[in-house]
Amino acid sequence: MIAGVACSSGFAPDSGKARLSARPGAPSGSLELGAHRLGLGGDRDGTVYAPPSYLPGAGIGLLLLFHGAGGSAAPFVNAIRPLADEHGLLVLAPDSRAATWDVIGRGEFGADVDFVDDALGRIFGRATVDPSRVWVAGFSDGGTYALSLGLINGDLFRKVAGMSPGYYVADERTGKPPILLTHGVNDIILPIQNASRAIRTSLQGLGYDVTLLEYEAGHQLTEEMAEQAFDWLTA
User: Fold this and answer.
1) How many angstroms separate the first and last alpha carbons of the chain?
2) Which residues contact 191 (CB under 8 A, 6 or more apart)?
3) Which of 99, 98, 127, 97 has the alpha carbon at shortest distance from 115?
4) What is the pLDDT of residue 14?
5) ∠ at Cα 138 (221, 108), nearest 5°?
6) Burial 91-105 (b: 16+ CB within 10 A, else e)
7) Structure pTM?
8) CB 54 within 8 A of CB 60
9) Do residues 188 and 4 lie in contact, with contact meaning Cβ atoms separated by under 8 Å?
10) How far apart are CA 13 and CA 211, in angstroms?
11) Ranges in the chain, pLDDT < 70
12) At what angle do helices 141-152 and 111-124 cross, to 10 degrees?
């Protein structure tokens, strides 16, 4: 098992506050190989990981990754690091400002959106990121957050993956990125029928291309789930 954390609940209809402004461009700085702290947020900061195959100046794919409630970025990045190496991806994993992401814990978008925007801006300023390969994913509360920001910012994120998400908050959406949902059929924290199956029905009704992968698992991110999510993102 890679991760397994409880998910809290919440809802906020104001999607306008979740628009991200950072975009890939010509970098003016440089990025070291390996895993490093972002250096933006003190104790609650985040991790950026550049694989050994990263070549400055060559376009690379970027995965924005959100941890679950009560978690943090560093162990999550460490767990998926072999997959980032295999697929040659930059990984940007911010820490939530509080125990979970703003719209889930506080009922509104706010500090986490600002922090994510700053973090993306820093990476876009240090690495040549291929705009056609910018993706977002997350697990549990992070899955909910990835779906929400991904739908609202579908002009930035070309694919969106929610792993064991609870719901999404996106009454105002941009673009139509393909969506991947992964979920354990034995999940008692976020039962699949009320979570990913309901999300699939809702998003398909809005015209999205949605893939749902179901597993004999509980509320956890297994190695198989993570591998298939990376394969889907990079296909």
Assistant:
1) 24
2) none
3) 97
4) 67
5) 135
6) bbbbbbbeebbbbbb
7) 0.94
8) yes
9) no
10) 25
11) 1-14
12) 70
